[in-house]
Write a structure and sequence with these properties.
Elements lengths: L2 H46 L4 H14 L2 H11 L9 H27 L2 H9 L4 H31 L11 H12 L2 H33 L5
Helix pairs in contact: 1-2, 1-4, 1-6, 1-7, 1-8, 2-4, 3-4, 4-6, 5-6, 6-8, 7-8
Amino acid sequence: MNERLWNILTDSFPKLLDYGIRVTIPLTVLSFALALVVALLVALVQYANVRGLRQFCRFYIWIMRGTPLLVQLYIVFYGLPSIGIVMDAFPAAVVVLGLNEGAYMAETLRGALESVSRGQLEAGLCVGLSFPKIMWHVVLPQAFRTAFPALSNSMISMLKETSMAATITVMEMFRQAQVINGRVYESLGLYLEVALIYLMFCTILTWLQHRGEKRLASYGGTRK
């Protein structure tokens, strides 16, 4: 590695890491929080088989899973202003990432809910518990334990997908790497560096996932 490239990389690393911590991580957390709320509502509607709403939820899942994330970002940020709906880049990215991943997570949660024995729901109704109480205290805790690994993988995937927000001018970590590269023209080194930082973040999330799985397994009566 020549001295010029080394100086560029040592100078850019803290800048990229700073944007990763200040923008990429918050973008991931906010988008995941929105996705989790949307997924939970959609999964519950399908589990409860609410007519009308269930068809709407299936339509939402069909649209979100059947169209590319990049196209969705462009429609919201560049397309909606033509009909008077204008959003700043960061909120637009949060909304699109959240709704996109929420469709996949909804199916994960639906499967986890359906894995819980219906007999527990019926038993709760027999002892006089309301449907919301049964879901909150009996079904959802078991479903979340089952869905936790898949939901954790969704968060890791979303962290990497935040790089797509650069296409709608969000100044996150990857966009900052593009800006720096526009000045120094060291594409390979800079993009390998930003890939390393993504890998660091994903490694931390993977470690937290494993810790969470062990903790949940201990609650279930088995320890790894």
